[in-house]
Specification:
Blueprint lengths: L6 E5 L3 H13 L3 E5 L2 H11 L3 E5 L7 H10 L5 E6 L3 H13 L3 E7 L4 H15 L11 H4 L5 H9 L3 E10 L5 E12 L3 E3 L1 H10 L3 H20 L3 H4 L7 H4 L1 E6 L9 H12 L6 E5 L8 H13 L3 E7 L6 H6 L4 E4 L1 H6 L4 H16 L3 E5 L4 H9 L4 E3 L7 E2 H16 L1
Parallel strand pairs: 1-2, 1-3, 3-4, 4-5, 7-9, 9-10, 10-11, 11-12, 12-13, 13-14
Antiparallel strand pairs: 6-7, 6-14, 6-15, 7-8
Helix pairs in contact: 1-5, 9-12
Bound molecules: ligand C2E and calcium ion (2 copies).
The site of ligand C2E has 25 residues, from strand 7, helix 8, strand 9, strand 11 and helix 15.
Length: 417
């Protein structure tokens, strides 16, 4: 039975609860294994390679947060369900810390939970994972705990192994299409699809971020100009002829790319060659640790804005994007971090944070985007507080170029009806 696609590993010091979760998991089509100590948990993790983990946050020998830290160190890619009897603020803090560690959190279930609640979460997560559960080409745990090296990234650039996916952004008010965010993936022949969190930081430190960023810019502008803006359905639309003119393409910029002296000329040339108005391009910046060289980054960002490009402060509300940077740098958009948006349905505090960021953004004359929108109630809430744009799995996952275009066509057709 080891060929079941979905494997749930449980860590709970209470055997009865572990057994209950196990039964629920099995009824949802998971193969399950229950452990009651961190030792047996990590041993099973290495040997069995689960796709999902259910983790109790409070245990006598080791607290759940320590387990999460260890899972992050092991670069665990399983989807994690956190369960516990602690208050929702503590659960939320644990979830945020896990996300910051790069772990993939499927959900948080406060104890005591009803079997229905847990089953619903497991079913939802299993159904929505799709190709994310491609079998690992290297089940050997030693090989999965990889460190990406400079040489590998160099070779990947040479062999053209980077691909872009595009995630749609819509207006909260009427769900009209507003644009796309380009997100990079590495299709590594040995490891499968590698997420950016695992190679962008390496590219940043080994000096490869500049060529990688240029590649991403070149390719995404080409797609945007050739496919999206030239798409007949998006144009053949007399009463909304300005739609294609208004669509934006968001591109992530690492602060380190700002050291590339000819950067502005490069983007400007790319836009001119593709006949794209700079206003359609939004550069998203996180961790404006442009702090390393605050003066020249301020210069560069100001020049970008003066050329007409838009600038977005990404992950706002986290430690990486502060109020100081929001005021100091010439942003045109603020993106509410997904940790607040994803926890909005169960946390009044998160909703309060989102509302304050939206108000702050508007009072500074900025466009506001909420990312990580996963459920209809959150979208409704964003509409109520007049957040401008929404992005998230509820609307669409990031999609390969041709699927993103097909999505836009379908979306427009249903939008018109
Ligand atoms: P980000 O810029 O904050 O991108 C949003 C991330 O959230 C994406 O992850 C996206 O897949 C994910 N996401 C979007 N909606 C939802 C949702 O509803 N729920 C959940 N759980 N997640 C959602 P991804 O593609 O893995 O990218 C991770 C980070 O890697 C990005 O965070 C960005 O900082 C960096 N990155 C991605 N592409 C590039 C790139 O081309 N250049 C640079 N410099 N960094 C990039
Ligand atoms: Ca972004
Ligand atoms: Ca973000």
């Amino acid at each position: 039975m080891d060929n079941n696609k979905y494997k749930l590993l449980i860590l709970d010091d209470d055997t009865l609860i572990a057994r209950t979760i196990s039964v629920i998991g099995e009824s949802s089509g998971f193969e399950t294994r229950a452990t009651t100590s961190p030792e047996s948990f990590f041993k099973t993790l290495d040997e069995w390679q689960p796709t999902h983990i259910a983790l109790d946050l409070i245990m006598p020998d080791m607290d759940g947060v320590e387990v999460l830290v260890e899972l992050a160190r092991k670069e665990c890619t399983a989807r994690i369900l956190i369960t516990s009897g602690v208050g929702s603020r503590v659960l939320d803090a644990a979830r945020r810390s896990a996300v910051e560690h790069g772990l993939s959190i499927a959900g948080v279930v406060p104890k005591p939970f009803s079997p229905g609640q847990l089953r619903e979460l497991l079913n939802k997560d299993r159904d929505s994972r799709g190709d994310a559960l491609e079998p690992d080409p290297h089940p050997d745990p030693a090989r999965r705990r990889f460190e990406v090296t400079t040489e590998e990234l160099e070779a990947a650039l040479e062999r053209d192994e980077f691909e872009l996916v595009y995630q749609p952004k819509v207006k909260c008010a009427d769900s009209d299409l507003a644009g796309f965010e380009a997100l990079v993936r590495w299709r590594c022949p040995q490891r499968g699809l590698v997420p950016p969190a695992l190679f962008i930081p390496v590219a940043e430190t080994c000096g490869l971020i500049a060529p990688l960023t240029r590649l991403i810019i070149r390719r995404s502008i080409e797609w945007f100009a050739r496919e999206v803006r030239a798409c007949p359905e998006l144009n053949d639309n007399p009463w909304r002829s300005s739609l294609v003119e208004r669509l934006t393409l968001s591109i992530n910029l690492s602060a380190r790319s700002l050291g590339d002296a000819e950067f502005i000329e490069f983007v400007h040339e790319q836009c001119a060659a593709a006949s794209i108005d700079p206003f359609c391009l939004v550069f998203e910046l996180t961790e404006t640790s442009a702090m390393e060289d605050p003066v020249s980054s301020l210069d560069l960002l100001t020049r970008l804005r003066m050329k007409g490009f838009q600038l977005s402060i990404d992950d706002f509300g986290t430690g990486y994007s502060s109020m100081l940077q929001l005021v100091r740098l010439p942003f045109s958009e603020v993106k509410v971090d997904k940790s607040f948006v994803m926890s909005a349905p169960r946390s009044e505090e998160s909703r309060a944070v989102i509302r304050s960021i939206v108000e702050l953004g508007h009072s500074l004359g900025l466009r506001t985007t909420a990312e990580g929108v996963e459920d209809p109630d959150t979208l409704e809430y964003l509409k109520e507080i007049e957040c401008d744009l929404a992005q998230g799995f509820l609307i669409s996952r990031p999609l390969p170029a041709d699927e993103a275009l097909a999505w836009a066509r379908r979306h427009l057709n249903s939008w018109r009806e």
